[in-house]
Fold:
Amino acid sequence: NIIEVIIQNQQDENKLKGKKVLITAGPTRETVDPVRFFSNRSSGKMGFALAEVAHRWGAEVTLIAGPVVIDPPSGINYVSVTTAQEMYEAVMNHKNDQDIIIKAAAVADYRPKQTHEHKMKKHEGNLVVEMERTNDILKELGEQKQQEYLVGFAAETKDIEYYGNKKLEKKNLDAIVMNDVSSTSTGFQSDENEVIVLTKRGLKEAIPQSSKAKISERLFEIFIEEKQGEKS
Amino acid sequence: NIIEVIIQNQQDENKLKGKKVLITAGPTRETVDPVRFFSNRSSGKMGFALAEVAHRWGAEVTLIAGPVVIDPPSGINYVSVTTAQEMYEAVMNHKNDQDIIIKAAAVADYRPKQTHEHKMKKHEGNLVVEMERTNDILKELGEQKQQEYLVGFAAETKDIEYYGNKKLEKKNLDAIVMNDVSSTSTGFQSDENEVIVLTKRGLKEAIPQSSKAKISERLFEIFIEEKQGEKS
Structure:
């Protein structure tokens, strides 16, 4: 009944009260010249949904996002970036004293070694673009981890559980959320998603296809429960 | 007064009556793997504004657009594509019997030589991406030109008039619309633009900063006048 709904909402509103949550979202864009760029497919919708739920549940939310076309949720600290380097710097500036850090952004692993100030003229034949590695933000967060609960995302098209487990361990994460981006009804651009969560404490849960908001709620329930378990 | 506005609108509605107009818009996206891609900065807004004006003025409009986040105008023939190759094929399928063809899309000049079916794993050190040329759609349209009025766009950051004139001649265009994409208040993502038009018949007109809809109206006035002049 309605009383139960109101009570449930009030309880939800306090689930992350007094907590600080940092979320990254969207792609990054690596410039070749003023017109051309390299990027990753990512609408930012999953990260934005996570930020909305964290805010609704009472957290102090910082959302660092690459170039996306969706409007930032109100009531949060929104930091807009373009490149992987800018994303790295923003995360390093905000990472301290966070209770939960979720890296949902699809940060470019490589950027062109050379950026041209003016538009490159095309010419006959092939073009070779030399790319260099960007900073591995998640790896660095894992290495410097203190009390915060650290969550990574993995977008894979095959062997997703194998790669998920590997990343969980290698990057010193508390949890990894894996989505199969080869599905068309979920993932990129979609308002829905379907994920598998693996945690360091040994949880494995498949969250069936649902709105990114519903998925976010279930994810935070898991993270909060595991974080509380840690202390006791 | 209101009567004059109504008469003007009725006159506008007939300016392209019975004409066929083909417009390309937006970027193309060239796949590296299921997550990574290479693209151009282009919101598609200029091409969409042109399509809306042509439709409002009575034309039968075909709009071929790469991946954009704006909604297609209603009442037109909308063809959605992703890659330069798909854009090329769609244009070639629709180019016959057009009265005006406007190539406002920012088609990638290069695409990765190799496309990976599954997400590439990153590794230590640099990555070399070999790129090959895509088909030059505008050049081919110029070579096969018949009765249609052919318009290209040029996005430059320097020497824009020099490059515009060169492209006008080399691609056998009737007109070229040049914007300086180094400006932040106009161009990419913006709802406003500021352009210079050069035509084969020798017109040079700077259209001052205005909405992309207003710019589109002035452009069609020029194209219609020149096309009518051709016949007489």
Q: What stands out?
A: The interface with chain B takes residues 34-41, 69, 106, 108-110, 113, 117-119, 122, 124-133, 155-158, 181-182 of chain A (CB under 8 Å).
